[in-house]
Amino acid sequence: MRRTAAVAPAGPDGDPGAGLRTEFPFRLPRGYVDEHGTVHRDGVMRLATARDELVPLRDDRVRENSAYLSVVLISRVVTRIGTVDDIHPGIIEDLFASDLAFLQDFYRRVNAEGHTRAAVTCPSCREEFAVDLAGGRLGES
């Protein structure tokens, strides 16, 4: 059972606009290539629940190979990649390694830190600024 509705309860000051964000868009660096050769890059990841982190521990594939944990976990929280909305471990297995690494980092940022921004420094001018790892077009905020 997948939850796709975004929850927006009132914030601490009673402002309903300060609600909890539960879904985060992303853009894969390379993209998932389906059986027809179509490349899918834009997707959505939802916040993980305690169940999302516990259920994979009972999976036989994870018991045999602990590295498989991230594949099962990511498949539970990614709700869409391009037009593909039936995300399962087989889809995640077929991602390029750089895309899986991106999703693992994105998962950590969304669930542990609560945002998708990363602090970066320009190598030329040394100016510090934030980049949104969720993607989007240049110039968007």
Notes on the structure:
The protein contains 5 helices and 5 strands; from the N terminus they run E-E-H-H-H-E-H-H-E-E. With 141 residues, it is of the alpha+beta class. Strand 1 (23-33) and strand 2 (39-46) form a beta hairpin. The longest helix has 17 residues, at 97-113. Residues 1-17 and 136-141 have low confidence and may be disordered.
> Shape from CA axes?
globular
Mean pLDDT: 82
**Uncertain segments:** 1-17, 136-141
Largest sheet: 3 strands, antiparallel
Spatial ordering of strands, largest sheet: 1-2-3
What is Rg?
17 Å
Extended strand count: 5
Helices and strands, in N-to-C order? EEHHHEHHEE
Please count the helical segments. Answer: 5
The percent of residues in helical segments reads 25-40%
Measured between the Cα atoms of the first and last residue, the distance is: 32 Å
Q: What amount of the residues lies in strands? A: 15-25%
Structural class: alpha+beta
Protein topology:
Layout: E1 23-33, E2 39-46, H1 50-54, H2 60-64, H3 69-77, E3 78-81, H4 89-93, H5 97-113, E4 117-121, E5 128-132
Antiparallel strand pairs: 1-2, 2-3, 4-5
Task: Quickly describe the structure.
The chain has five helices and five strands. With 141 residues, it is an alpha+beta fold. A hairpin with a 5-residue loop joins strand 1 and strand 2.
